[in-house]
Amino acid sequence: MSIENLGTPVVLLANPGFLRDAQSASSNKGMPVLRTLPLNVACESTVKKDIDTGTFEAMPAIVEALTRPLTDHEKAPKWSTEQPPRIAFKGTYENINRFFYRNGWTDGLPIAPPTETAVREMMTGTDLPADHVVAKVIPRQGKATIEKIAVNAVMAGALPTHMPVIIAAVESFAIQKTRFDTFEVSTGSWAPFFAINGPIRDQIHINYSSGALSPGDIANAAIGRAVGLIVKNIGGARKAVEDMGVIGNPAKYTLVIGEDEENSPWEPLHVERGFKKEDNTLTVFFPNSYMQAVPKGTDAKGIAKGMLDMNPWSMSCFVVIPSHAEILASEGWTKKSLKEYLVRGLEDPMKAYLKSQGGETKSEDILSAPPEAADPDSLMILVAGGPGAWTGLLRSVGGIQNDFVTVKINLPANWDKLVRKYGNIVPNYARY
Amino acid sequence: MNRSRILRMLAIFGMLTAFTLSSAGVLPAKDSSEAQYEVLSPWGEADPKPLKGISPRVDDLSGKKIGIFANYKRAAIPIAMSLQERIKSEYPDSTVSIYHSDQWNVTEIETENKDTFKKWVEGKDAVILLVGD
Hints:
The structure holds 2 protein chains of 2 kinds. Chain A is α/β, with parallel strands linked by helices. Chain A is built from 17 helices and 13 strands.
């Protein structure tokens, strides 16, 4: 679009599956009439013959798009976008769910009705006024006001005590080095991972022990779900229009965990990242894969080698269980020395693959071919999980001016009262 | 017929009627007191954007300076090279130059390369934009 703004005619070529994405990107920047054409070449093609056939077939249309005179609409476009009224609907629980689903406002699961009363109660989780804009969420630069955040939080089943964390997550997306702009819509289906530190973990019952990343804990479940709905409903990231995740990622439902600070021999993640121990923080990055492995040995060397064998990309987060962290620490390993060991021992999987194919090339698209972790600071270690012997690894990619981002979670003045009101909402399983 | 037998027959009749109605897709009327909710929209507002038209086209590609913008995706450069070859063979008196961006989802004009990019665009009569997908 900036080329058109400079007065030079443009035609955009994209794989047919990406045309709507290209048109949406152009519309979002105020130019809904950019001329676009399908190019019938496989995405990220490496086959010259196919590329030559595609460009040959597209050539007449390219010439036409660059030479056909403009219509009146192309000279001065008129475009209208839908803006639903504040009160969106009135009906039964079932009808509301159908209405919201048909509008593309849910994640496929039933939502809790965001009534005026429920939204008002949700907003007791912050001292900020209802019309305060926390951030403008891309791609459509939707205004994440406190009220809209609260509406989506109610839908997700969150409690008012979760609001400070959800607001912090929205704030974190506005920080450029998260590269939310790229990860949220990328073909790689990256999902936000939120690590929570500080006293708030226990106050709102964030799970950081057995099955922390499994369903069953309202805080872990609803905070991530609320953020997913905010991205969709405030940011306007529509599946297969702007969110071009090829295969998708179940972690987009939720990926929230706390750190087991009390059972970790090391300093907590947020302290390592410059915050005070008593601060409440949220740390975010965007992995697209999650794997788990049992190390070959249960001594420190075996655990460290097991982590190396999991092959972290540049940027990755290891979830180390407290018992393994204790063994590592007892033999002198710190988070820093562990990260340095991992970086030294890694071999670039893409290089190894290319070598095995008899050649070496440099890929410039590191989102499609993530390199190995090369910098200790591109690795994060979080102590969490229950009894057992597994290590977790969440893999993302660095090198696109991105980094882990930690933000402070700000609590409202009535926090203690709110915690008393909602603090006893915990599961009590049936005995059998 | 004693009373309990009559009651038993009435019960069977009732069950049969309910079965017939539900098989025909007719469901019992919903409780009119079923809760109704008035709910707020989750859709965020966005400021309206000033709309812009596109630039006038060229009359012909002959003798023109054509630019091909290739983004960071790995297929973008091979496609650009193929197009360059194609344009040169169909319009031998045209000139074609390729601009390669290695920025992820950032408009080139907003990067440190903006002056180079602007200079490249300003020297072109038309541009083909490739996104590599």
